Amino acid sequence: MNNGAQIMVAGIGSPHGDDQAGWEVARQIERRGLTHVRVKLARTPADLLDWIETGMDIVICDACRGAGAAGSVHHWEWPCGQLHEIRWSGTHQMSLVGVLALAEQLGKHPEHVQIYGIELQSDHSEETVSDIVQSGVIAAVESICENLNHSVRQGEMEHA
């Protein structure tokens, strides 16, 4: 994933309950101070169209439904047919899959796109993220940071 270039981590969400999961993942990654990572928070997948650039690496985080048990973390690389079966949280006017396809049609071809979905707890509508989804957020952050650090080390070896 990264040859020393900047990586964008985009959290998609809202300030409501478990739908905050994508934002929370992005915020926790930002707190780690990784110099090769820039973090963006989006309300809808369509916001990504303003940030995607040709050749960049992107990690997208969002709450989802239908991929597994509440709090479970799922990882896909774009393009992936399985993404059409996943329901993403919120009331997005344009789906994540649709936004990524449109970006390609507009000539904005990201080098790599990784997508992390955290299965939300369907009946949780409190102000904060449920405990089970918070455990998924932590697992997603660890997985993403491990992948980011691995790709940086690999990029350093390729340039040596």
Summarize this entry quickly.
By secondary structure, this protein is of the alpha/beta class.
Number of strand segments: 6
Low-pLDDT ranges: none
User: Structural class from helices and strands?
Assistant: alpha/beta
Mean residue pLDDT: 84
- Characterize the biggest β-sheet: 6 strands, mixed
Principal-axis shape: globular
| Portion in beta strands | 15-25%
Cα Rg: 15 Å
**Helix amount:** 25-40%
Number of helices: 3
Question: How far apart are the termini?
Answer: 17 Å
Q: Could you spell the SSE succession in H and E letters?
A: EHEEEEHEH
**Quaternary structure:** single chain
Provide an overview of this structure.
Helix 1 (21-31) links the parallel strand 1 and strand 2. With 160 residues, this protein is an alpha/beta fold. Strands 1, 2, 3, 4, 5 and 6 form a six-stranded mixed β-sheet that branches. The protein contains three helices and six strands. The relative contact order is 0.25.
What are the defining features of this structure?
single chain, 160 residues, alpha/beta, six-stranded mixed sheet, 3 helices, 6 strands, 31% helix, 22% strand
Topology:
Elements: E1 7-12, H1 21-31, E2 37-42, E3 57-65, E4 73-77, E5 87-88, H2 96-105, E6 112-119, H3 131-159
Parallel strand pairs: 1-2, 1-3, 3-6
Antiparallel strand pairs: 3-5, 4-6
Helix pairs in contact: 1-3
